[in-house]
From TrEMBL:
Name of the protein this chain belongs to: Zinc metalloprotease
Any matching Pfam family: Peptidase_M50
InterPro entries: CBS_dom (IPR000644), CBS_dom_sf (IPR046342), Peptidase_M50 (IPR008915), UCP006404_Pept_M50_CBS (IPR016483)
Topology class, membrane: Multi-pass membrane protein
SUPFAM superfamilies named in the record: CBS-domain pair (SSF54631)
Any one cellular-component term (Gene Ontology): plasma membrane
UniProt family annotation: Belongs to the peptidase M50B family.
């Protein structure tokens, strides 16, 4: 993700921080300073939000480490002002596994809250509503309450919350994954409508949550329906058989000419006997910005082109493309190059397949 920096690497997972998160820290520091008028208060505000997001990171590690037990790799966790995002290759499709991965995050928050509760009692801290307010309030008590809130909020049975995935996993024990996703998305949209109504009459902030839940449910359902359409399709059905290859010795200006002369945007690099890399349109534009037009393609740092067999299911192919962060793969049949597949081909296949399914109904 752009504007992100690596903060640490824990258990083989990079923890990144986005530039906008620093603005959130400064904002909290300013709020505390504006309310209490001291530098100490500003520091306390910054420390509080950093500690809170430390709990968010632990929440995401709960997901990531549980997913790892089921063979799902998490490449990194990124801290954003809206929370943490764990970049998993995919979610486990077995209902029980998905449920455990989804539950793990809120469970971490509840464990943190329990440990803070023990600390509060060991230190004989008096518990009252006033402890939530003011610079002299209990830091541990406020952190405990927020962790309980995070757990409960994430358990709302609506995508993209953990509760939506728990609901989908429970439904998937009695129906197909696609049907479970559709039903869970409908329930999630119901919660979005409820939050929207409450937002109109009580708190406008709930309207933002309503929009967030509605869009999350819609996106998750659409993505799952797309995958369902591709359930029994293979790379051979989606591959492009007529395409242009650029040579590593070609100059950038030749790649530009090929792009303008045809409809192909991304090019495999190599020969018909061996494709090695991918030159995307965005990379070509960036290369023209950074280098002379006579620069040869082999001088660029391009992503490696992965190769799959023609019989590879498209669902597996998409997972492969996502894990390798590429938008094109080469397809081999009987040991020879048969074609290429890119995301545009797959989306076209989805559109045509959905249109034919709708016609049959």
């Amino acid at each position: 993700m752009k504007w992100s920096w690596k903060l640490a690497r824990i258990a083989g997972i990079d923890v990144n921080i986005h530039a906008t998160f620093l603005l959130l820290v400064l904002w909290f520091a300013w709020i505390y300073w504006a309310n209490f008028g001291t530098v100490f208060a500003a520091i306390q505000g910054a420390v509080y939000i950093i500690t809170l997001f430390g709990c968010v990171v632990l929440h995401e590690f709960g997901h990531a480490l549980t997913a790892r037990r089921f063979g799902v790799v998490t490449k990194h966790i990124t801290l954003l002002p809206i929370g943490g995002v764990a970049a998993m290759e995919k979610m486990p499709e077995k209902p029980f596994e998905e449920m455990l991965v989804a539950v793990a995050g809120p469970a971490v928050n509840l464990v943190i809250a329990l440990l803070l509760w023990v600390w509060i009692h060991l230190t004989n801290t008096q518990i009252s509503a006033e402890l939530l307010m003011g610079i002299d309030g209990s830091f541990a008590f406020r952190l405990m309450v927020v962790n309980i809130f995070l757990a409960l909020f994430n358990l709302i049975p609506a995508f993209p919350m953990d509760g939506g995935r728990i609901l989908r996993a429970a439904l998937a024990t009695r129906m197909s994954h696609a049907a479970a996703t559709a039903k869970a998305a409908t329930i999630g949209q119901g919660f979005a409508i409820l939050f929207g109504i409450l937002g109109v009459f009580y708190n406008p902030f709930l309207l933002l949550i309503a929009i967030f839940l509605w869009l999350g449910a819609t996106a998750e359902n659409q993505m799952e329906q797309n995958r369902d359409v591709l359930e029994h399709m293979t790379a051979e059905q989606a591959m492009l058989t007529e395409f242009r290859i650029v040579s590593p010795d070609d100059v950038l200006s030749h790649a530009v000419e090929h792009t303008i002369a045809g409809s192909q945007k991304d090019f495999p690099v190599g020969s018909r006997h061996l494709l090695t890399h991918v030159l995307t349109q965005n990379q070509l534009v960036q290369a023209l910005h950074d280098h002379d037009r006579s620069t040869r393609i082999h001088e660029l740092d391009l992503p490696t082109l992965i190769t799959v067999d023609a019989s590879t299911p498209i669902k597996n192919l998409l997972d492969n493309m996502q894990s390798h962060h590429c938008n094109m793969v080469a397809v081999e049949k009987n040991g020879e190059l048969a074609g290429i597949v890119n995301l545009e081909n797959i989306m076209e296949l989805i559109r045509f397949s959905q249109a034919m399914q709708a016609r049959r109904r």
